[in-house]
Design goal:
elongated; mainly alpha; 2 domains; 13 helices; 249 residues; 45% helix
Amino acid sequence: MAKPLMAKATAVWLVDNTTLSFKQIADFCGLHELEIQGIADGDVAAGVKGFDPIANNQLTQDEIDAAEKDPLHKLTLKFNPAAVGEEKRRGPRYTPLSKRQDRPNAILWLVKFHPELADSQIAKLVGTTKPTIQTIRERTHWNIANMQPVDPVALGLCKQSELDAAVQKAASKKAKEGEAMSDDDRRRLLSTEQSLGGDTEPRIPTAIEGLETFSLGGDSEDEKEPEIDADSFFNLPADSDEDDEDEQP
């Protein structure tokens, strides 16, 4: 569904000038219902000036009147040629100033744990440039000694769904190219849902790799070893003591 221009400012105007329900405004503006309630309480969008959707050719007064009479009526956005293509993002992702210092750490994490991602994919995920990614790949970045790999999702630079989509795209590209992948590579190319939903794979500790045929536990009942007898072990004749006594003078 198409969203209005300046959605939050439009929501402020609708809250202040109509009796529409929070859900109706939220559905129309593409916001959460609790966010609309926060606007009504003054906790959200403080200082934001309302954007009149009627004056800006996004809604008609008849549409608002019909929605006010019927709480189940959904507002329909009026076609506005100026809004065509507004939702399409162009250029690098915008990163807030408070998080820009975390981008190198996020790039280092992506380069280390997802080397299959192309520079263009990393640039789109965290909003950086290809030269910056290249310096981190080659470890020639001016601050590389102080950088630590940190998950960009944990830093809030991208969504988990966006990262999963980029990884899946890289997986499809590798499959088409026919490039052989190791087990570790295959695990990296799984999405979060797939990796969490799969069965736990038992793995042999590296310290005993190659000893799979040997039993780590006690012997089974069917394969009990015969008890060792002292006489049979030393293979001593039963009457050896008597012979020794006869030979003594």
